[in-house]
Amino acid sequence: LGKHAGERIYLQAFMDLVLEYSHNATPDLARFVDWWEVAGRKRSVSAPFTQDAIRILTIHKAKGLEFDVVMIPYCDWDMKPGRNTILWCSYPGPPYDRIKALPLNFSENLRETHFRDAYLDELRRLAVDNLNLLYVAFTRAKSEMYAWCGAKASENTATIGGLMRRVMACKREPEMENRPTMDLASFFDAAAGTFACGRKQHEPAAAKDDDGSHVAFTPLPPAPSGGGRLMPQGLRMAFQGRMNLEATEGTICRPLSEGILMHEIFSHIRTLNDLAPAMDRMVLEGKMELRSRDRLERAVRDRMNNVVVMSWYGGDWQVVSEGEIIIPGGMVRRPDRVLVREGRAIVIDFKFGEKESRHHEQQVREYAQLIRAMGYGETEAFLWYVMEGTIRKVV
User: Fold this and answer.
1) What is the DSSP letter of 37?
2) Cα dihedral 134/138/140/141 (nearest 10)
3) Which of 298, 296, 289, 294 is nearest to 251 (CA)?
4) Is residue 203 pLDDT above 80, yes or no?
5) How far apart are CA 118 and CA 221, in angstroms?
6) Where are the alpha helices (DSSP H) in the chain?
């Protein structure tokens, strides 16, 4: 990196951080790596505003600022919220008037329900919010602005790109001819999908290497149609999560501890038949190394080799894994596993690598009280210290 002048500022900033850490804490490699993961990597390199460089900001961060040239590469966000969005509604009529607020899935189906007005009102609010965001993005440039609205943008107003295409394709009405308006359609090439208005104020300079020689940029080739390999053989997909440096051996170990891995594995298991698919899923998501898969699967099966545990995973219960319980005040409780059958409920909370404590018992008792308040008569609650193989019945 030191051979490239453009990278030296990052090296210098990193060296300053190392020096700052050594002054304020014990100069230990393992501790420095921990600090880096928590706080150090969030530091940014300060650069003068007048420096000839590209600044990358979100639209929200750019609010109130202005730049000679602005580029908006992803000007095609959805106008509607994503899946699993909750709309909180109230309804004055029976039987819903007994509940102050109802959590409903935000979807088109609400148009045909008692909550139609609340749904449409939320759609209007979302449309206004998105138009305001677009306004902020389009008013940051002093000289030039470039926006990419997606290669497959249509006139579907469900996305910002589609809305812009539809507006730009509209021809000016005859009655507007004598008014100070712009005929957007005259600047829009529908076949090419481009809108161009005005002229360039800044001609791009030829890219140069650190020694002043010109640099030729080769565009990335399109993906092969036959499902061939696009990525070079030497590239590998990065694992998710935190990476730990083993200081004594100089090697990198897996990001998730065995306890955290097991907790996520158990959250994906409803019956014993789900164990193998859950392990495969963790490998595919990069949260577990393939070489560790078989060992961890054996460890999980070993810990599930218990009569009580086997009854929890036999498939005879309706299972709610990490379901949220909303309590007064808007707070949320999330028991690890709740089993329901014929008005009876069992609450199970997993603990991995933690010592037994009264706080754990209080936590599970609260879960059981909440489940009982929902109308389940017979409710049991268990603490399962998985790594120690201890099951504690609390209620």
Assistant:
1) H
2) 160
3) 289
4) no
5) 48
6) 8-24, 29-38, 116-138, 160-169, 258-267, 275-284, 290-304, 307-312, 358-373
Q: Is 47 helix (H, G, I), strand (E, B) or coil?
A: coil
Residue 130's alpha-carbon distances to 68, 137, 320, 355, in angstroms, are 24, 11, 36, 49
The pLDDT tens digits for 52-80 are 677 888 888 888 788 888 999 888 888 88
Does the model's pTM come out above 0.70?
A: no
Determine how many CB atoms are found less than 10 A away from the CB of residue 383.
Answer: 21
Orientation of helix 258-267 relative to helix 275-284, angle to 10°: 120
CA distance 388 to 303: 9
Burial classification of residue 240, based on how many CB atoms lie within 10 Å of its CB (0-12 exposed, 13-18 middle, 19 or more buried): exposed
What are the Cα distances from residue 343, in Å, to 34, 278, 320, 327, 371? 47, 29, 14, 21, 11
Q: Is the pLDDT of residue 253 over 60?
A: no
Pick from 345, 355, 347: which is nearest to 390 by CA?
355
3-class state of residue 350 by DSSP? strand
CB 242 within 8 A of CB 255: yes
pLDDT 10s digits, 127-155: 888 889 999 999 888 889 998 887 555 56
DSSP per-residue letters across 364-394: HHHHHHHHHHTT-SEEEEEEEETTTTEEEE-
Backbone angles phi, psi at 147, to 5 degrees: -135, 140
Tokens for 329, please give them: 């005040």
Q: In whole angstroms, how far apart are CA 70 and each of 3, 57, 141, 144, 221?
A: 31, 10, 5, 6, 27
User: Shortest CA distance to 195 belongs to which of 176, 182, 177?
Assistant: 182
Strands (E), 158-271: 188-189, 194-195, 244-246, 251-253
pLDDT of residue 207: 47
Of all residues in the chain, the percent with pLDDT exceeding 70 is: 77
Structure-token match 């909180």, residue found: 88
Residue 367: which of 353, 358, 380 has the closest Cα? 380
Cβ-based neighbour number of residue 86 at 10 Å:
12
Q: How far is CA 363 from CA 14, 20, 346, 347, in A?
A: 43, 41, 14, 11
Residue with tokens 């107003």: 157
3-state class (DSSP) for residue 103: strand
Instruction: Using alpha carbons, list the distances in angstroms from residue 160 to 6, 64, 127, 146, 148.
Output: 36, 22, 10, 15, 11
